[in-house]
Amino acid sequence: MHLSEALASGTEGVLSSGGDDVVVVVPHEGWRVGFRLAARGRRAVEVSFLPPDPLPGLDQLRTLPLGRLLTQARRLAAAPPPSPFTSITELNLSGWKNEGRGPQGRPLRDWAWLAWEYVARKEAGEANPAREISERFGHGSPKVWSNRIARARELGMWEDDHGTPCITGRADRLLGSAANDPTDDELREMERRSSPRLPPGFRVKPQGSG
Q: Is the residue at 55 inside a domain?
């Protein structure tokens, strides 16, 4: 499946799996970001974007957290079948369904994914992520989720950078971000060189993909 077809389909999640690659579409604030991942190692070999309508300015493209969306695409691709796409939140916080674990016995990756979810929601402009998580996902009251988010910060999974929460390097490592992935800046620079007007459905290929 071509990425342009995947983006135009209106469907999200893993759209094509088999052969040499996997096609995944991840939503983000009205954007649809498509990744073609190598079947072995889940290396990104192609990225394509479908912006919201009306067409946003280039500044909005520069704020897309492409590295974290790539991590999300890998997580979707690695989910054991059958795994119908329900929501990013349910996927990120799936480890929290096991409520029998105490804070000390919970894997660090659970805390890292909670930090990822919290930061993503703050970036989307939510004033109270703990309440939204509680209402949409359950498994705890808003106060319980607020305490968990604070604990994730104590564990070094996210930090406050002049009023803006961001994921730490420790959380990135736990979530398995590949060291050889193109950075957000590299993808944006490739976009600037190849498509300054940002036409709908434009695509770029990461360096080293051939």
A: no
Span 26-48, pLDDT tens digits: 888 788 888 888 766 666 677 87
The pLDDT tens digits of the residues spanning 106-154 come to 888 889 989 988 988 887 778 899 998 998 888 889 999 999 999 999 9
Residues 6+ apart with CB under 8 A from 199: none
Q: Higher model confidence: residue 114 or residue 91?
A: 114
Please state the domain count of the chain. Answer: 1
Residue range(s) defining the domain that contains residue 163: 86-180
How far is the CA of 86 from the CAs of 32, 95, 207, in angstroms?
16, 15, 32
CATH classification at residue 136: 1.10.10
Q: Is residue 38 part of a domain?
A: no
Strand runs labelled E in the chain = 13-18, 21-28, 31-38, 44-50, 158-161, 164-167, 203-204
Question: How many CB atoms lie under 10 A from the CB of residue 27?
Answer: 16
- Are 51 and 29 spatial neighbours (Cβ–Cβ below 8 Å)? no
User: What are the beta bridge partners of residue 130?
Assistant: none
- On whether residue 158 sits in a domain, the answer given is yes
pLDDT at 116: 86
What is the spatial distance between Cα 109 and Cα 87, in angstroms, rounded to a whole number? Answer: 19
For residue 59, being part of any structural domain is answered with no
